[in-house]
Amino acid sequence: MALLDTVIGATGQWVSGADPDAGLGSPLQWLRKTSGYAAVNRIIGLSIPFAPRNGFRVIELRPGFVKAKIPLKGNKNHFGSLYAGAYFLVAEIPGGVLTLFDLGPAYTPILKEMTLQFLQPANSDVVVEFSLDQQTVDAIKAEADSTGRAAFELEGLMYDKDGTHVATSIGHYRVRKKGFNAARN
């Protein structure tokens, strides 16, 4: 676990320094961005092999923000739109990614409960976006540092390829501070 924590920390620093809008006009920034996202998706795949098998991938990550995508291909339901389990997959993993990279590897995210509100069927790939402001990050860290854990909520907004809002997720998370000992703190 110590090696994985080190890799997560280094990857977070690498990705946070990348320009999410970098294109081939800035080849070094583009390389930093694309290699960083590739590393993030590889870490996810090693930790949760189910995710890459279904085509899940993080497509944007910066401090306080994550955007992920799941393809329709291979994830269709019985009437041709995105399967409910695929919505759940694309809504659940980014919350952990966001907290791991914003709080750091000293905090372990745990999903306690999630609800999904389906607004309309998605007949295309779906992206989800999550945000976590610095004030909330600081409050989560402070509580986890003093008690060993902290609870918080994340809302994920899901869109189809046309930008239509197709679903919303509400995730109730808890983080645990690794190595916390109430007697020492």
Structure description:
The protein is an alpha+beta fold and 185 residues long. The protein has a domain at 50-177: Hotdog Thioesterase (Thiol Ester Dehydrase, Chain A, Roll), CATH 3.10.129. It contains 5 helices and 6 strands, in the order αααββαββαββ. It has a 6-stranded antiparallel sheet with strand order 1-2-4-5-6-3. Helix 1 (2-16) packs antiparallel against helix 2 (27-47). It is globular and about 55 Å long.
pLDDT under 50 segments (min length 5)? none
The gross shape turns out to be: globular
Enumerate how many helices there are, as a single number.
5
Distance between the termini: 23 Å
Subunit organisation of the chains: single chain
How would you spell out the order of helices and strands? HHHEEHEEHEE
Query: In which range does the helix fraction lie?
Result: 40-55%
Protein name: DUF4442 domain-containing protein
Organism: Marinobacter confluentis
